[in-house]
Amino acid sequence: MPEPKRRSEKSRKAIYDAALALVAEIGYPRTTIEGIAARAGVGKQTIYRWWNSKADVLLEAFLDLGEQAEQAARGEGAEPRQYAIPDTGDLAADLKAVLRATVDELRDPKFEAPSRALAAEGLVDAELGRVFVAKLLEPSLQLYVDRLRAAQKAGQVRPEIDPRIALELFVSPLAQRWLQHTAPFSYAYTDTLVDYALYGLAPR
Amino acid sequence: MPEPKRRSEKSRKAIYDAALALVAEIGYPRTTIEGIAARAGVGKQTIYRWWNSKADVLLEAFLDLGEQAEQAARGEGAEPRQYAIPDTGDLAADLKAVLRATVDELRDPKFEAPSRALAAEGLVDAELGRVFVAKLLEPSLQLYVDRLRAAQKAGQVRPEIDPRIALELFVSPLAQRWLQHTAPFSYAYTDTLVDYALYGLAPR
């Protein structure tokens, strides 16, 4: 019986789209389950059947957005997402490639407005912030931890370095430029961050 | 005629306190000139005589808060604030000292709540964000630029390094941990950031 399944997938996507659009347009505090249901053209019971709260809906909508971006980048019919940063043996090149892809994603208007609205709310709503950091941000940072650990095994990163701190040298500057508009960002900028982090500011 | 001057200084401080308290308690969007005036016990014309907008009031309230923190750290009767990072000749020690002072400031509840409320609003109100970055954040970042330039002259930082990017390797990670609660921060953490940034992640 494929029909009910297909219909529910369609509703699910409509709900994601409605949730992302609303949070971008009117902000997280004024986004409600009722508003999402109305915009998606479903009953609010449909939403409550699948999710417990608007934070849950948005969390899954963002995860889905990430999957879509990944699939678009890798082309139609690509293998399912590989949850790892490539390891070509060249750490600088691998980090530069993944940060360039992040620059593209941060510039995508579909991602920009809802992410910004949610990040803003996460600063003042501690519980929301905690959930999004734990479920969205931290898992993506762990991919850098894994890649840096592999580089330590290969002798390309000093063994005493803590990878969870090290990754912040290139991830946090980009995050701050994007979030707070402190300065423009580009591929040249993220490439530079990787070089500075790997080789240091002091003469060698 | 010292009396009017003294009275107006007192009103000015009351207005700063009221503005910071309100933005922390009810957020930037709901903070109004009328609300600040009522809480400070002054007429709203008093506020409009000195400032054009609530953003202006808050900007000066934050500048004043920074001056107070600086004066408290340096002791009663200290010289006026020196707008420079100390240069003892030891770049690592100087950066660690200023970042430890920043850790203290970020943990001060007087600073924490209004800063967070304003940072959140700056993410979604582009004009407010631009003013606060230009008038509060960027001038403090320029102090790092100056210190790194002096270190370049002293041969402690490679000549080809762009100081405006380099400072982000230790400033942005702390900002992100503070703003987004991605992980705890401590003196040990900021010391580590400085060491990683100066000496790099790759073996020397």
**Overall strand count of chain A:** 0
The description of the largest β-sheet of chain A is: none
Determine the N-to-C terminus distance of chain A.
Answer: 66 Å
Instruction: Give the largest interface pair and sizes.
Output: A-B, 50 and 50 residues
Q: In CATH terms, what is the fold-level topology of the domain at 83-199 in chain A? A: Tetracycline Repressor, domain 2
CATH architectural designation of the domain at 83-199 in chain A: Orthogonal Bundle
CATH class identity of the domain at 83-199 in chain A: Mainly Alpha
The proportion of residues in beta strands of chain A is: under 5%
Q: Give the low-pLDDT segments of chain A.
A: none
Secondary-structure element sequence of chain A?
A: HHHHHHHHHH
Q: Number of helix segments of chain A?
A: 10
The Cα radius of gyration of chain A reads: 19 Å
In which range does the helix fraction of chain A lie? Answer: over 70%
Question: Which structural class should the secondary elements of chain A be placed in?
Answer: mainly alpha
Multimerization state: homodimer
Shape of chain A: elongated
Question: For the residues shown, what is the average pLDDT of chain A?
Answer: 89
The CATH superfamily title of the domain at 83-199 in chain A: Tetracycline Repressor, domain 2
Keywords (chains A, B): DNA-binding, Transcription, Transcription regulation
Domain HTH tetR-type (chains A, B): 9-69
InterPro entries (chains A, B): Homeodomain-like_sf, HTH-type_TetR-like_transc_reg, HTH_TetR, Tet_transcr_reg_TetR-rel_C_sf, TetR_C
Protein name (chains A, B): TetR/AcrR family transcriptional regulator
